[in-house]
Design goal:
two-stranded antiparallel sheet; two-stranded antiparallel ribbon; 4 strands; 24 helices; 2% strand; 368 residues; mainly alpha
Length: 368
Amino acid sequence: MENSINIEITKQNKQAEFSEMLESESSNYETLNMSIQGQSQYSINSINSNTILVPLFSPNQFNKLDLKKDQLKFFSKQNILFSFTNQKSTKQLQKSLVGISKDIIDFIIYELTGCFRMIIRDKNGNYFCSDLLKICDKNQRIKILKELSNTINEDCTDEFGTHTIQNLIEFASSEEEFKLLLVSFNDFNKITVTALNQYGTHVIQKLIVHIPEKFRMVFNLMFVKFVCIMSRDMYGVCAVKKFIAYTKNEVILKQFLNLVQTNFINISGNKYGNYLVQYLLEKWWKKEEGTILKNIIISKFPILAENRYSSYVCSLFIKLCNNEEKKQLLFSLNKFKSKNSNSNSTILVYINEINNSMKGSNNKNIDY
């Protein structure tokens, strides 16, 4: 067989990002040298009038691996890249993944080595990668993950790349996979930038949910440092809420609570931060952390009541309070009112609101 063969591929409707690769590989495509049991068994051959590149096994290996010629045709590198030029051919390629053997999956990963980043960032290719990951075993996922590990931070903030990275996290099941994923988020900046991105925030949340806490201790220590910044962002606050829901380490939670205490006015007075404070109130209401938050709100209530967003925290606080807690708040507000004769009507509105909420049990207003 000749060492190389000229291959013609129809370029109609190809996506621009694939065209250069296809053109370079379409002419004089050299024999692939992949060793199977110590011998090179891959070569180039034209299959039909479309002259699509297809690596061929010798007859004895073909039978041993139980491979079909159609499968080799579908999953050659050239054919896979060409399939992403339109949605219909991509779906056909995805369907052909059903029921394939481990050897075929290994073959696909080998064929696509060096191309995965380009594929996962393609509007059609990312669907193929997601389906491929579903049928990969641990070692196969690790091969893909190692190729992507240097660019995960950029890929997870990409509109299409984020889906594959999320799937890599969801399917991860070994310590090696966890470490490869977390090493890409080994500094404050990478975590924060990703969490504040509309696509990246989903990756951070997946990391928090799917990677056991014992493997993400370093990640947690870095994450908690910037919760004040993230809690005031529409995407970041979602990551912070997920962080609290899936973090049990008392040291980390104490550090988080200290930061919230220090920055309580700024966080609760923010368009998005007030949702975090409300979430914490409901989650921790009957816990020690909830008591700390209650005392902060009571002491700072007049300030919180004046802000549009932190006033939502005030309203929720009153709703959650029992009568004893409302009495404590009333005492504080009336004390503030007596010391500040020029206090505005907002405080009076809240005093009336609290009194009215207690009428059902006391049948009279409480004043001190």
